Amino acid sequence: MIQMLEETTLPINSVKLLASSRSAGKQLKFKDQTITVEETVPDSFKGVDLALFSAGGGVSKKFAPEAVKRGAVVVDNTSAFRMDPEVPLVVPEVNEKALYAHHGIIANPNCSTIQMVVSLEPIRQKFGLKKVIVSTYQAVSGAGNRALQELRTETQDYLDGKEMHADILPTAGDKKHYPIAFNVLPQIDVFEEDGYSHEEWKMIHETKKIMAGDMNSKAIKVTATCARVPVPVSHSEEVYFEVEDAKNANVAGIQAALRNAPGVVLQDDPDHQIYPMPINAEGSRDTFVGRVRPDQEEDNAYHLWNVSDNLLKGAAWNSVQIAEHLDKLNLLHMQ
Amino acid sequence: MIQMLEETTLPINSVKLLASSRSAGKQLKFKDQTITVEETVPDSFKGVDLALFSAGGGVSKKFAPEAVKRGAVVVDNTSAFRMDPEVPLVVPEVNEKALYAHHGIIANPNCSTIQMVVSLEPIRQKFGLKKVIVSTYQAVSGAGNRALQELRTETQDYLDGKEMHADILPTAGDKKHYPIAFNVLPQIDVFEEDGYSHEEWKMIHETKKIMAGDMNSKAIKVTATCARVPVPVSHSEEVYFEVEDAKNANVAGIQAALRNAPGVVLQDDPDHQIYPMPINAEGSRDTFVGRVRPDQEEDNAYHLWNVSDNLLKGAAWNSVQIAEHLDKLNLLHMQ
Question: Residue B333: is its pLDDT beyond 90?
Fold first, then answer.
């Protein structure tokens, strides 16, 4: 987040770093300044124009309204407000205009949703979109720094012939823990009563809200399967989709739409083994899309494969990008 | 393969181990015997009742007809004869009866196909099957021992902060090679002209041949996306499927069909975090199935997640199991 703020075009006068009392006093760099982390209290937000929250849903629920009360616009990277009909859920490439309706808080979607809607929006604009079936191959960093360390430790233990020990994944808040090293975990976040994981639920309802304005919209059907793979950074997704305009849609037309789309880099040349991969996406703000091909037995269905850095476009960059768009639209008054 | 033969119920009198001249002279154990590997020549098959081939398509094309000429029944684990309309392509749990039509050669399907059709057949029998959309998370051992070694070396290099070097994956026969460690490769085998990989092509046409009797059958629609993940053994698959009998199908009915199905172990209890994972499937002949849940916006579509040991049910065990069924049906005359 700090790195994205260092690189932003926003006219930043000063930066505050806020955290819990546990982290207060820590010193972090912003450009050539050293900034001391302060404990968050409601009055921390006095005089603040823009507050980026990314410290868990509980913290956002408690402090985001306090920040708004004190005149800040909040971009919240947690799930606290995403389904609030009063709070825009925004991916700038897709629904920038939703920003006009904000009341102080704008929600940043879940990482796996963001890269999917960035890949699908250019197609939706050109050919319409009826249905999406997504299978994810998600990176470990989505579960935080401790999960990343767990992947490293388990991996080394496995190579050394030792037993692997899991404390965090599939999700810190659940009862059982399984190794991610050399494994695939078909669980991200906890399970809902209907057998979907909460991550899958998010992909379904966030996509509907971002692309069709309502978390329960019937305009676009979405279903999802989310799995964690032993990759540190960058989620991959196989996206199967049905277009409205079957007559005019084709692979070349979809590729053309993607080639010209903001935030998208088309990497689609199977003959030369060009396709998106996590190791190439890490560190980039773009969503890489390839393997566009038709379902050979349907006239309106296609596949694509996308990869994006879940920590940048999936989190920090999308948050800062929202702030840039707020500023551009005069919806954020930087003093 | 040797291990599966050690454990088989087939009445084996003697075993020959055949290979190229490069491996001839090597000694391997079968139960308490030490057997010297011999170079394969046409007359190697004199007096042989059952020949299991697993040394590449070229070897099978050259020697399988020679073995048949000398009275052996061949179970071929390569892709050499899979699409030959005269050669049954068999997964015993699904289409055992196809064995009756054999002319000396029976083909063993591709690993990723086998575990999918084992999972789907009980559902097809009960509710019919219209369409399948599969996304795979395939293990490295599917690409052979050298690929497995490559995964280990790359993994250690990554942990040591060294650059990773790839020589084999995504597929030895293609021009470019990319690391598999901490990565996902959306390429298995080479690409066809239509943008599908050959592995995806196999899943589509083998499934049609096994379940509907014809590699181009329109009775079941199939589309596939195959990706390799950094897992040594056991493929995982997200299988999305549409049933014929939407009115009577439901999750409980699908689970009941799977619970009673041969070769299937139902591991489906999300509340207790019970679902199939590669680390639990390695070494088992079964296909583990879980995460059965409906597409919430379709009345005839469901998801399941399956995992199976690609070296056992996906290869060696299915081959030996075919032999056992040939014997049971009196289609193999063990002397």
Answer: no
Cβ atoms of residues A228 and A268 within 8 Å? no
Q: Does the beta carbon of A92 lie under 8 angstroms from any beta carbon of chain B?
A: no
Instruction: List, as one string, the DSSP characters of B44-110.
Output: GGTT-SEEEE-S-HHHHHHHHHHHHHTT-EEEE-SSSSTT-TTS-B--HHHHGGGGGG-SSEEEPPP
| CA pair distance A319, A313, nearest whole angstrom | 8
| A 290-309 → B contacts, CB under 8 A | 290-298, 301, 303, 305, 307
Average pLDDT, chain B: 97
Q: Which of A175, A187, A230 sits opposite B230 (nearest CB)?
A: A230
Question: Does the CB of A161 have a partner CB in chain B at under 8 Å?
Answer: no
For the question of an ipTM over 0.90, the answer is yes
Residue A104 has pLDDT above 80, yes or no: yes
CA distances from A87 to A69, A75, A90, A205, B239 (A): 15, 10, 9, 14, 35
Mean pLDDT for A246-257 is 98
Q: Is residue A173 classed exposed, middle or buried when 0-12, 13-18 and 19+ CB atoms within 10 A define those classes? A: exposed
Asked if A178 and A186 count as a contact pair (C-beta separation under 8 A), the reply is no
Q: What integer pLDDT is reported at residue B4 of this predicted model?
A: 97
Percentage of the residues of chain A whose pLDDT score is greater than 90: 99
Is A100 in CB contact (< 8 Å) with chain B?
no
A107 pLDDT more than 80: yes
The CATH architecture annotation of domain B2-109+315-328 reads 3-Layer(aba) Sandwich (3.40)
User: How many Å lie between the alpha carbon of B213 and the closest alpha carbon of chain A?
Assistant: 18
Inspect the interface and report whether the beta carbons of A279 and B182 lie closer than 8 Å: yes
Backbone φ, ψ for residue A51 (5° rounding): -120, 120
CA distance A200 to A187: 9
Element housing B149 (H / E): helix B145-159
CB contact under 8 A, B275 and A187: yes
Pick among A277, A298, A307, A309 to test the B interface (most B CBs inside 10 A): A277
Q: Residue B233: how many CA atoms within 13 Å on its side-chain side?
A: 14
pLDDT digits (tens, 9 = 90+) for A162-192: 999 999 999 999 999 999 999 999 999 999 9
- In chain B, domain spans: 2-109+315-328, 113-310
Instruction: List all residues 6 or more positions away from A244 whose beta carbon is below 8 Å from its beta carbon.
Output: A127, A128, A129, A130, A300
Rounded to 5 degrees, φ, ψ at B132 are -135, 135
Q: Does pLDDT of B335 surpass 60? A: no
**Nearest-CA neighbor of A129 among A146, A139, A142, A116?**
A116
Nearest-neighbour CA in chain B from A242: distance (Å): 13
Provide the CATH topology of domain A113-310.
Dihydrodipicolinate Reductase; domain 2 (3.30.360)
Strand partners, B178: none
Angle at which helix A111-127 crosses helix A198-212, to 10 degrees, equals: 40
Which chain A residue is nearest to residue B185, measuring alpha carbons?
A277
pLDDT at B334: 60
Q: In this complex, do B133 and A240 lie within 8 Å of one another by their Cβ atoms?
A: yes
Write the pLDDT tens digit of every residue in A125-158.
999 999 999 999 999 999 999 999 999 999 999 9
In total, chain B counts a number of residues equal to 335
